[in-house]
Amino acid sequence: MSRKRSTTFPGRYERIGDICDFVLEGATEAGFDADAAFQVNLACDEACTNIIEHAYDGDGNGEIHVSWEIGPENFVITLKDKGEPFDPNAVPEPNIPFAPDMMEQIQIGGLGLHIMRQVMDNVSFRFDENGNTVTMVRRLPAKPTPPPQE
Questions:
Q1: If you average pLDDT over every residue of the chain, what do you get?
Q2: pLDDT digits (tens, 9 = 90+) for 4-32
Q3: Total count of domains within the chain
């Protein structure tokens, strides 16, 4: 049996915390430990920042529809916006690993997308007449095996 929730937030930087708190509720309910929940939260933060910055040009004149679903095997986060289309294939891979003394040589862009892909099991993008959709999937934690019955 799956559980699903959804809501809509203003697409503004100051609302990213609220959006991620909403997603974190689902991650906690899904049974993720603190480290995994932090990673899900980080992916949410990066995705929302990208939507606000790129789809809405940072001006906060749009909305982000957020949903999460706990399925039999996966926790799925979906973020939808009606801003400018975003092509993840146009984003260069960040030049990592890097040393702290190389900070000035790091290319701008791509790090957030890289983080999302590293901490989630799947990240996909869809663009159509209804807007942009980012879907992020993380496998649910393994359930403990009960001890054998004697």
A1: 87
A2: 999 999 999 999 999 999 999 999 999 99
A3: 1
Distance CA 16, CA 5 (A): 17
CATH of residue 22 = 3.30.565.10
Picking from 27, 44, 45, 25, the residue whose alpha carbon sits closest to that of residue 36 is: 27
The DSSP letter of residue 36 is H
Q: In the numeric block, which tokens belong to residue 3? A: 């559980």
Residue by residue, DSSP assigns 68-120 as EEE-SSEEEEEEEE-SS---GGGSPPP--S--GGGGGGSPSSSHHHHHHHHHS
Alpha-carbon distance of 132 to 110, in angstroms, equals: 18
Asked if 84 and 50 touch (Cβ cutoff 8 Å), the reply is no
Structure tokens at 36: 């995994």
In a domain, 65, yes or no: yes
Half-sphere exposure of 18 (CA within 13 A, CB side): 12
- What one-character DSSP code corresponds to residue 13? G
| Maximum C-alpha span of the chain | 64
Per the structure, the complete domain to which residue 129 belongs is given by 3-139
Q: What's the predicted TM-score (pTM) here? A: 0.84
| 78 domain residue, yes or no | yes
